[in-house]
Amino acid sequence: MKAIVDLSANIRLEIDDPKEMETLSKAIVLGNPRRTCVCGNTEGFYMTSNKDKEGNIYVNNKCPKCGARSKLGQYKTAGYFWHEFEQYIPKVQTKNEIPLPTEE
Ligand SMILES: [Zn+2]
Q1: Predicted pLDDT of residue 78
Q2: pLDDT (tens digit, 9 = 90+) per residue, 27-67?
């Protein structure tokens, strides 16, 4: 079974899984990210992705107003879910860390 899902305004996914319930589950979750941020905003969300030092990949739905992110989560067994929006609070820099130069 195939399904076409709009993940965002400019990302369209084609989900193709022989199991109908798998296709439906992915299509429903991926096509329905959280629509209300913790700041109250309900529009203009956009997708971002990042990778940490351990190689874990994150897919986030980001709020344009406050920068909070709703991460795409994966259940250990199978399937996806969207975390609640969370504000990103950077770790306090230690003396050994050098800030990256900022772009002009
Ligand atoms: Zn927000």
Answers
A1: 79
A2: 999 999 999 999 999 999 999 999 999 999 999 999 999 99
87 C-alpha to ligand 1 centroid (Å): 8
Give the per-residue pLDDT at 77: 85
Judge contact between 23 and 16, C-beta under 8 A. Answer: yes
- Give the distance (Å) from ligand 1 centre to CA of residue 89: 14
Ligand 1 centroid–CA 73 distance in Å is 19
- Asked if residue 72 has pLDDT above 90, the reply is yes
CA distance 44 to 61: 10
